[in-house]
Amino acid sequence: MINTMHNPNTTNLHVHGMHVSPSGLSDNVLRKDASGESLDIVIEIPKDHPLGLFHYHPHYHGSVFVQMGGGMVGAISVQEDTTEVDAVLVLQAFSFKGGILGNLYGAANVSNSTLSMNAELTNQSYQRIADFFPDFQPRYHTRVENYPPFYIVNGQYLPRIPLQDGERKVFRIVNAGPTEILELFIPGCSIEVISKDTFPPANKRPKYVVISPGARVGIIVECQLHSKPSGVFPFVSMPHHDNDDYMGEHTDIYHGVLALFHVEPASKPLLSSPPMGVNEMDDLRSITPRDEHIEHFVMKFSNGPSEMRNGVMYKTYYMNNRLFSMDYRYQMRLNVLQEWTLMVEPSKDHKNHPFHIHTNPFQIVAISPGNDIDYSIGDWRDTITLPLNGNVTIRFRPVDFTGLIAAHCHILGHSDAGMIMLVEIQP
């Protein structure tokens, strides 16, 4: 069946957030590369492409979740000057929960894996961090079947990141996990947000930084020792329940320490923050039907009852009351302004469904409720969380490229289980 975990050794490639062709040999997620085969991929990046951090990952429907949950992802930094690379943090979660499987053991069983699931060494590190930072690291025993997801940073578990006292350092971050939303902060340090999905946000000083799976953020981190000889500051994600009405009280928000900032006294002159490219976009909010034709579309995310598929019990996840099918698609015309209303149908699951669309970014023109939690009215994005008991209105203009693209929930277990649809950009 199509909306199940299947073909775990079949893959393809998607360049998340990039404005490139979705057809032919380019960012075409309808191609497939089966085990033992190969694909030629040719992606032409426009000269005026937005600058910033993007990423690539598999996108073959039915195996996206298990492949990204196993670490198949990489960063792409589009820069004017490639001789200097910003500090990039790729946050990857080894996780197999989120609608299609229970955990790593479930993934191993469904795919008939014979690999050992022993996490003894990781468990030792996990417990040690819980000893040092009990307020931020929950107590789990990571070797039992319900162990939590692990995040690694640039391929390392709990890496040390060096900083100087008072240094303002830029980091570009991608949440490359398949399931968990991040709510980031660094106790004792300040964070200034300078980009979200490569675009400047209105709210640059949030209490914590929300990053849904697939989203990216640029931040400036500054830590002060206050006369101490040195310091260790944990880079933390944890749920903040003041936003449960927006985020959903059962939404998977990672709770734990991701990395450790090791701060030493300044040994060399501190430089000011390096300049960041600002991607300027037109403001579409004031356009009315008198100015030009606007096409309207409502996209509804909803859950259904669990059902047996291929001998495995799956939860059902719908877009506009349909499971994914090659036969159902929304059609829009090149250069014609789109206004979409995105809404999550209330359910007993109380879980968020982050929205992502390929090829073209969009502007937030209305939110009800949730302004300034993940984004603000007027912000441009390509991947966002959605209010659980409300809706978001976005506008965008499909430009430059025609063809089939995908719009979907970026909790990839939900997407593989059916919460994805095709959108056709016509000439």
UniProtKB/TrEMBL annotation:
A Pfam family annotated for this UniProt entry: Cu-oxidase_2
Gene Ontology MF terms in the entry: copper ion binding; oxidoreductase activity
InterPro entries: Cu-oxidase_C, Cu-oxidase_fam, Cu_oxidase_Cu_BS, Cupredoxin
Superkingdom of the organism of origin: Eukaryota
Alphabetic keyword roster: Metal-binding
Protein name: Plastocyanin-like domain-containing protein
Domain Plastocyanin-like positions: 313-425
Organism: Thraustotheca clavata
